[in-house]
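Input set for joint prediction.
Command: fold jointly, output tokens.
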Amino acid sequence: MLKMSDNQQGSSDGHGIGRYFRPFAGLAVPAGAVIAALAVGAILLGVFGANPLTGYRELFTGAFGGPDELAATALKSIPLMLVGVGICIAFRTGVINIGGEGQIIMGAILATLVALALPDVPRPVLVPLVMIAGGIGGGIWGAIPGALKAYSGVNEILSTIMMNIIAGFFMSFLLEDWLIEPGAIRIQQTKRLSHNADLPILPGGTRLHLGIVVALIVAILGYLLLFRSSLGMRLRAVGHNPHASRAAGMKVELSITQALAFSGACAGIAGAVLVFGSESHRLIGEGGPLAFTQSAGFNGIVTALFGGLHPLFTVLSSYLFGGMLAGGISLQRAVQVPQALVIALNGVVVVFVVGSLKLRTRVQRWAEGDIQMEDRA
Amino acid sequence: MNDFFTVAIITATLASGIRLAVPFLLAALGEAVGQRAGVLNLGVEGVMLIGAFAAYYTALESGSAAFGLLMGLVVGMVMGLIYAFITVVMHAEQGISGIGIYLFGLGFTDLLFQKQVGTPKPISGLQTKPFNWLADDTGRAGELLFSHTILTYVAFLLVPVIYFLITRTTFGLNVRAVGENPQAADTLGVSVNGIRTAAIVIGNTMAGLAGAALALEIGIFQQNLTAGRGFIAIALVYFGAWRPVGVMAGSLLFGIVSSTVLQLQVQDVISGSVASIANMAPAVLTVIVLVVVSRRIGQPAALTRPFTRDS
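tokens >
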């Protein structure tokens, strides 16, 4: 997985007939995997008595059919973009971050606390402030497992999962009592937060808000960090070969901690966007952590991988996945198949695409003329 | 306040903690077998959900909890074969394909539940309590030890069984060999892919069973019924340092803490916010244990590494 994009930098002087396919060969296998996954979806739709073609048409028009749909898709894709960019940074450094869920929550909590503490700060100051607070909250929540991995050798997959659980209970702890909206109905949510912290709606008559700009800025910063800075060069070197990096005098431990801190910060900003870009403008814990994060902490991993662990391509793949989430709602309306189908399909897509990577490498090598298929089969 | 500290309530709390530990124990023991063979399965949560729904739906339709349990086991086995194909044959990155399995299980069971059942209808759990007749005669200790369903005994019996399997059988030796050094095992004629497939199927079958146990214990199904238990089970494998007894200790810890917190809340001893803090405790403790364990015991050397002859 971590070597996904390395394959794209093969030698440019491939020979044989394969070289004409070379630019497309790498894409053919994942594209085939996506089509296969959609075929599974079609079968499921058929089993539930819906016309698959109608279903997919509804899914598509619901996602990309007009300005409102495009905006709804963008709104769904913002958390995926932010988490995804963070995942790019972590995975490129060779660190697996499964802690997106917890980092989103801690970012949301810190941003909420800032908005509660400083409700009267004018909007041009408060909005950036809560976004930064989100980044700090998520960043700390990422840095902890990062440091534990770097300095104590704690497996980050495990520690980030535990950090998710701790964050979930911490949110419910705060919303049980301290931050709960005063009143007779005890729903686990805060009061409506300061209007000055609302993410402004962008002009154009849709519901799209400034969050998309935040996500794009973070993606560009992520790209610059990873590919245009010496810090990013060190991170990628550590991801590529920690031993060689250490031998070259790099502080591998520091890089690992930094990578998870940056990764968490991106997810934390997603948490802030989920609070201040929501229609309720509250932190809502009712229904559990998964209801608040919309599983973006996991789905962001998927979009980052689809984006080849490149922040800018991750924006694109997040938008497409956002389209599936947005389109799922109209799918449900039109053919009475619950939108849970979309989550299941996401899973199938992931399994198929990750499962086809070996095949992809093989096709690519064949296309580059490096090996003969028969020799390897 | 003082009501909590009666022997009756403490016994009931501990007994319920043992019951709550069962899904953790089954899933984590299975995951430990897979990891010993060098395969990380992050999809436990998804497989548990699928096992839970299969058990719930079968029990609902057939009226037989035992039949439901069987179906949970069967779908777990099927998921194991699928996961083995993805990771062992296709060499898919294990962490990510596990997340894929999780998302699939999460969405698919929700979809099936909404489409096939709709509103939460309760099912009756397992009624067979093989030693229940002993519970009446032996007082508190009897209630603690003998008031459980057959599944609880099976789960705890699996601790020595898995221990024996891993440490005292040829199969177990092969499992450990392919988990530590698949190349060496291969040169000795051990089928690395075969052993790994077997280990994965064992692990997923137990995850399916764990989901079934959970659904039958709770008696209903809902979206995301497992609520992170599968992920905790994975952590418990590390917590227990890949050893069945350690895994059992961790499972009991999580089970008893949850049941105690729940009981304290029901008895109005603590408020909801304190309960949330208390519920964090096992996760915090796990992180601390991970710090200690990582220093002391390494994971299987070939964990998450696909096997190829030419590397």
